[in-house]
Amino acid sequence: MNLSFFDQFLSPSLLGVPLIALAIMIPWLVLQTPTNRWLNNRLMTLQSWFVNRFTYQLLQPMNLGGHKWATILTALMLLLITINLLGLLPYTFTPTTQLSLNMAFAIPLWLTTVLIGMLNQPTIALGHLLPEGTPTPLVPILIIIETISLFIRPLALGVRLTANLTAGHLLMQLIATATFVLTTTLPSVALLTSLILLLLTVLEVAVAMIQAYVFVLLLSLYLQENV
Amino acid sequence: MHCCQPADLTPRLFRVRCGVTMGKAAVPLVKQMLLDLKLIEVPSWTINRLLFPKSTFHAICRGRDAYYKKYIDVKKGGIGGVAMFLMGYVVISYIWGYSHIKNDRWRKYH
């Protein structure tokens, strides 16, 4: 039987239910709602601090019309960061390594921002296709280029998240396999590779958080243009 | 004088059963505790409580709230509550994917 390193991205099923269903449901269990008490417990205080800080940071540069998106953007950020970080635990499944899920997040939200811009302020929305100060001979080509870049945005959003997480997981598995195999033959080299693995794991934790933030930040930027 | 209807086994979700004695209030079958049921009502109770999504959802919510109140919503909470949950998640993921993982065992020839 041929074992491939990509087998980790296949969602295993138990009694017909794939593990991805559990993995997507877990953030709902992890993230609790703070109660109406004056002082919550420590975990809720930390969570509330993080959510408030993040929402403030995200919505500060935005117009009032974009503030309607506060709930959905913060919820998306919490979901992505929880899914990404939980995927770093051993034997767990990371749903965001699946392109289908990330495109399902990216395309509807991007399309909503574009439609909001086109319906509410069509002149301004179309005006974004030509940056200010462009020399006249370049105008036709630049409009084509900007249109292409507009349509590539959801693809870039989805693929960025998928590729970063998939590459990270794959790299960790590769280096872990190398360490494991080298332990019996060349222990000193195995020690070096295990050090690399440790550093890579730290990097993966950072990447997990940053990629979730970048996804939501870019969406908020697209919203800012159109609102 | 009490109204006494025979226990009906037709699958109707929230059938109200009249109390056998005068003092007992009528409680829907689904909302009764397991130990308060008559034997003949257990199968329909089980089907309603386990197979329908709404009941399963409420059961998960109750479980989550109980865990939260016991281990996390305490005066001086530490890492223990969250760590136990994450360990449980890892174990469940391992069990879930065992048929897939067992092919990755350390063996001489793959």
TrEMBL record, chain A:
Superkingdom of source: Eukaryota
Any Gene Ontology CC annotation: mitochondrial inner membrane
Pfam assignment, any one: ATP-synt_A
One MF term in the entry's GO annotations: proton-transporting ATP synthase activity, rotational mechanism
NCBIfam families on file: ATP_synt_6_or_A (TIGR01131)
Record's subunit section: Component of the ATP synthase complex composed at least of ATP5F1A/subunit alpha, ATP5F1B/subunit beta, ATP5MC1/subunit c (homooctomer), MT-ATP6/subunit a, MT-ATP8/subunit 8, ATP5ME/subunit e, ATP5MF/subunit f, ATP5MG/subunit g, ATP5MK/subunit k, ATP5MJ/subunit j, ATP5F1C/subunit gamma, ATP5F1D/subunit delta, ATP5F1E/subunit epsilon, ATP5PF/subunit F6, ATP5PB/subunit b, ATP5PD/subunit d, ATP5PO/subunit OSCP.
Name assigned to this protein: ATP synthase subunit a
